[in-house]
Amino acid sequence: MKSGSNLEKILSAGKFAVTAELGPPKSADAEVVYKKADILKGCADAVNITDCQTAIVRMSSIATAAMLISKGLEPIAQMTCRDRNRIAIQSDLLGASALGVKNLLCLTGDHQKFGNHPQSKNVFDLDSIQLIKMVKDMRDEKVFQCGEEIKVEPRFFIGAAESPFADPVELRVLMLAKKVTAGIDFVQTQIVYNVEKFAKWMELVRELGLDKKVYILAGVAPLKSVGMARYMKNNVPGMDVPDEVINRMTAVGKERAKEEGINICVDVINQVKEIKGVAGVHVMAIEWEEVVPEIVEKAGLLPRPKIG
Amino acid sequence: MIIGERKPIQEILDMIGEHDKILIAGCGTCVAICMAGGDKEVSILASAIRMARNREGKPIEIQEHTPLRQCEWEFVDELKDKIKVSDTVLSMACGIGVQTLVERYPEAVVYPAVNTTFLGLPEEQGVWSERCGACGNCVLDKTGGICPIVRCSKSLLNGPCGGAQDGKCEIDPEVDCGWQLIYDRLKVLGKLDNLTKISPAKDWSTGRDGGPRKIVREDMKL
Amino acid sequence: MKRDFEPKITAFCCEHSGLPSADMAVESEFVYPEGVNIIKIPCSGKVEAIHIMRALEEGDGVAIFACHKEACQFLRGNLRTEAKVTYISKILREIGIEKERVQMYFLAPSNGVKFARTLRVFYKNLKDLGPNAGRKEL
């Protein structure tokens, strides 16, 4: 075992994994975290805790992760390259490991231009691939990025995000291959609505044998409304929302939009489950965490298996 | 070249304060080419300041002079007499020019009238864009001659983030994705292989992060 | 007091349109304000920002008479000057001088009527605005 996390155990046992996502509050309110944790408990093998997503200041991912552990959930801490240099990242990772965090998702990070502090200075001392390499070397070589030895090393099950739909498309699989070489154990993809396009990407992934080297979790998310579907289609980079999905959302009308959004999400899960090389799903329902149990239930993925 | 942009006139007027005898010193090199601080821009700013001060009923006397370069001792020496009779010097050079004046004329009060924005080139008349981050450790050999440090909004060294769409950067649909440009270029060069190699964590100490930089060439010293 | 104010105007006239129109206005005795300082230029595109600024520093208003937009003898000289006038407007706004003091007019080569009428209107507008506060003290 690399980290011995529940997620690692589930995946290495060949079970179809389910991860969810929890957005920490824009405040110091612990209750918000505990409430969301209660909702997600039992319906995901591990829960991603975003790291100031879209560059908006929120409660620290690692602190929130520690709070989840105290409630009996397994967190996947997220770490972006935007806000910390290699000194700060390594320091935080030592702390995260000491607090019992066993999964880490390594990300580039959204540009601060989108957030609530667009005038801030960004860091990007490392990029996500260099971050992955550093975290792997800390675990497997027991060294800091500078080469100095670590007496007690932080052990993480290392993840990355990948965007099958972003440009340049030819480069996307190559980027995944690079992340694999750098040392990831699992990957969570950008939200899939266009299953056909995702399946094609998976074909390329299989051609390179990447599905044998890392666990691939397909990202899914319930749509709340037609407006949200359109917004994602037009404004979110690396997002592909086919017209068919928009039509489905339109057809049911406003009252039943949420219900249809959940149905679409379940359909996508059922479809990606059949694609060879897909090891699990990552359900993203930020600020709508309460629908995750329903989605996982409807997709026939409950109860979650218990291993060791 | 160094690209600059004139500061807002009100900000410049605030710097001048109550002084009524100033010198506006331009620079005939980079900032003249990017139309921020050459002799023409010096004249326009002088005219604007005079009108602004006339309007306030506080006329001002302005001398103008634009040496060929404001970043070399021998050229700024020609400003000597004019600086002597001025209360304040407004430099329309880049930040280097301002500091050259400060060092050469420690008794003078020198203010910047131009914001030094980046190292770049005129893409076409009236359009300038950034090309170099002066990181002190050039990687252009690996990236097909396109700089990931300044052409990528996140200075990524191992390829694009997931934010590019239609070849444009996530921060602005007007901005090209630097890694799309690199990819296209490497494709043409038949060097897409470069992209599969992991570029290790960069040594930023050769850049600003390493502290003020200096180069000494013993063979060139007099 | 205001009644005594005689706006001082500089008119940059392109020799392909503004100037022949000015000549025609004189020949045909179309009335336009006295004392307008007419400056002949080979193309409105030859007017630089600094020329406009300096003329304004010494007067109350600057008019540029250029060929119609598609009719520039040098293809885009008039369009470039139009962009310069926009640039000057921004500077004037920054220093609190009315941007209406700098105007660009497009006209045909022999439109003495328009030339004279335009200047009369411009003169009246300047008279309403009052003296240029940024003008050099005489």
What does this structure look like?
The complex is a heterotrimer of chains A (308), B (222) and C (138). Helices cover 42% and strands 15% of the residues of chain A. Chain A has 308 residues and is an alpha/beta fold. The model of chain B has no long low-confidence stretch (mean pLDDT 96). In chain B, the strands form three sheets. A four-stranded parallel sheet of chain B has the order 3-2-4-5, sandwiched between helices. Chain B has a three-stranded antiparallel sheet with strand order 1-6-7. Chain C has 138 residues and is an alpha/beta fold. The radius of gyration of chain C is 14 Å and the shape is globular. The two termini of chain C are 17 Å apart. Chains in contact: A-B, B-C. At the A-B interface, helix 5 and helix 6 of A face helix 8 of B.
The CATH homology group name of the largest domain in chain B: Response regulator
* Percentage of residues in DSSP E strands of chain B: 15-25%
pLDDT < 50 runs, ≥5 residues of chain B: none
Which sequence of strands runs across the widest sheet of chain A?
A: 1-2-3-4-5-6-7-8
Q: Report the portion of residues of chain A in β strands.
A: 5-15%
Q: What can be said about the biggest beta sheet of chain B?
A: 4 strands, parallel
Computed CA radius of gyration of chain B, to the nearest angstrom: 22 Å
CATH topology of the largest domain in chain B: Rossmann fold
What is the straight-line distance between the termini of chain B? 28 Å
Tally of separate domains of chain B: 2
Topology pattern of chain A, helix = H, strand = E: HEHEHEHEHEHEHHEHHHEH
Strand order, biggest sheet of chain B?
3-2-4-5
CATH topology of chain A: TIM Barrel
Shape of chain B: elongated
User: How many domains make up the coordinates of chain A?
Assistant: 1
The interface involving the most residues is between:
A-B, 37 and 31 residues
Share of helix of chain B, binned = 25-40%
> Helix/strand/pairing class of chain A, anyone?
alpha/beta
Count of individual beta strands of chain B: 9
Oligomeric state of this protein? heterotrimer
DSSP summary: helix tally of chain A: 12
